[in-house]
Design brief:
The protein is mainly β and 82 residues long. The protein has a domain of 55 residues. The chain is built from no helices and three strands. Strands 1-2-3 form a three-stranded antiparallel beta sheet, with no helix packed on it. A hairpin with a 5-residue loop joins β1 and β2.
């Protein structure tokens, strides 16, 4: 079987960095491990465009001590009416 995934690449700018806003320090210092539970949490927000014009944002929080997902939320933003 010759199966391949298909992605319609769209370039979407979700962050416009301002030179007047402060840049926060990297408190984890790229050390993505912890010696005990509840020491270091990391999070991510992922932008998910949908075919029907809506946008979804998936936010997650993980404790670096264990691979378990602590919190996740999905927010759906409807496209403006034409």
């Amino acid at each position: 079987m010759n199966l391949r995934g298909f992605t319609k690449r769209r370039r979407c700018v979700t962050t416009k960095r301002s030179t007047t806003n402060p840049v926060f320090a990297d408190l984890v210092k790229r050390r993505f491990h912890a010696n005990d539970a509840n020491q270091v949490y990391v999070g991510d927000i992922t932008y998910l465009p949908c075919k029907n014009g809506t946008n979804m944002y998936l936010a997650t929080v993980i404790d670096l001590y264990s691979p378990n997902l602590l919190v996740s939320r999905l927010l759906i933003i409807c496209a403006p009416a034409s």
